[in-house]
């Protein structure tokens, strides 16, 4: 009888892998044992059919498992094993993955809706669903190292937990009403009698706002169909226009938004992300405009936990389910923290007594013509890992600290990159505190010891200062990496472009990033790889009058772009309410008016030209999002590109503004003008990128940067590049949420073979 030592690597802990192996072993007549250890799952097996047993480990793995590698070697047992057992976990240290939190599985959902001891129980789960990362304190993933340690199992749960044939075998959050977490509805600081779910539904129907403790933090919920409740929530949360996320069952979502088969699959993914869905067209029941002012899509998610399923069953309609925070601050996770920060917003608190170990927002994703796209990598996706591309074998451990906005960190270890969950904008002091906690948390949890630290080239970003401090304290190399090079590397890495692969033409369109020449970049065509790049073309720079003020107020960008195009008269007419002379003087002298090639500010300028935002934006990206929403209302024949000029290596928007003014004077619709802008910008960058590929200087085109969150721009650019090899983002955000992944790859490439930034 043959004997083997089988190592399974990947996402194989906390996902029911050991009972799955136990059942396979019984089926194939295998004896021995299986256990968790710091490297994953270890199997010591003896039997006559080990080839078939080994093949089934990958082919039939549980739904939440991700098998990266199966390594097999002969093994000698001291004595022939009798039967097959699941042995206790052993070893310390973290060399394996942690499974992300997973939405309620069909079996648990049926259970809470059927007679039995878990009927109506808000914390039912099994090895195929439930909390993971949000309850984990340390590895290996065992109950004693989670926030469920505070809930001793009752005899019935213990029997399920210890039965390898039960779907709850070693499900660490296993619970029931007799031994698990419990709900409390609190109003004015006092528990409200009665069923907390039923009473919460009653309050929501009355137009109240309820703070709900979920998996990774609090939500603020209200009736999505009640204009007065929406208005109250916006006023209290200080969120005048930013779209609210919505929750409902699939049949409810289909009444209010178009849902394709691919979008339905994305909604039903175990990650349960918020999915942006179109509301354009006939036959849909409208929700109040206050849900998402000026938008042509709504962000919907399915309920991810039994609590949310039960609440929606009781309420009977769609709910707003937005992050429980003050605008710009981190989401609350503790009961006392929620009472303090949300007390002026919420009329009631639906609480439970299971602690949240770490803060995770809801993920945000969308389907595009080129496939799925991650906008915010968060609950349900993190801490899933990404394989490093070919050629990065032997990479030392690297820490990358990301950027200032949409911050995230990235760790590399054992051929994998761990891109953290969304942490937020580091301009906010509380988010900055959260960033530093997350860095320490991830390092401890994954036993990470970096040999080098990567950061953004901008020395004043808080993330860059943090990286510098860590590098100095540990005497490690600090590797500043140009912002747009990191975006390019992130796209290359996600598409498994080899370390020694040919250069790629990268169209990198975003808001702001410090360039090698000391100016602010953001509309770039780069030719490069992981080790370096050259700047092949870029938007013609224009001043950012007022510095940060130009990010807040789109009209400032319109002023300088119209003046640059020789259209001062149009600027005077359209912007007469603003202090134009003062800003023109500052721009001419370069006083608080740095030069920038930003595509994001060009979007802002054109949104201002169409009068989509008056004064200041109420949230980051508002002008650009409204511009995309407007363009999607245009007929297909309106996609006739506005012209852009070319001056040496500069792409000049002046001809575009001249053509727009002609359209404006002849009464063209704003939607058509918005569409022509998108089509013109796409063609302006696609044309030189195509030339780089067709000349043989580049092997493909990569589309990256925050502007490519815009699905319309992505689709139009891809169409203009038809026939060429194309790389786009799917799992890694195109925005600054993916920046740390690119920084980690560039830093690793330098560690493996030198190379330096080039411009």
TrEMBL record:
* UniProt catalytic activity: an acyl phosphate + H2O = a carboxylate + phosphate + H(+); C-terminal L-cysteinyl-[HypE protein] + carbamoyl phosphate + ATP + H2O = C-terminal S-carboxamide-L-cysteinyl-[HypE protein] + AMP + phosphate + diphosphate + H(+)
Gene Ontology molecular function = acylphosphatase activity; carboxyl- or carbamoyltransferase activity; double-stranded RNA binding; ligase activity; zinc ion binding
- What Enzyme Commission number(s) does the record list for this chain? 6.2.-.-
EC class (word):
ligase
InterPro entries linked to this entry? Acylphosphatase-like_dom, Acylphosphatase-like_dom_sf, Acylphosphatase_CS, Carbamoyltrans_HypF-like, Carbamoyltransferase_HypF, DHBP_synth_RibB-like_a/b_dom, HypF_C, HypF_C_2
Q: Where is the active site?
A: 18, 36
This protein's name = Carbamoyltransferase HypF
Q: What is the lineage of its organism?
A: Bacteria, Pseudomonadati, Pseudomonadota, Alphaproteobacteria, Rhodobacterales
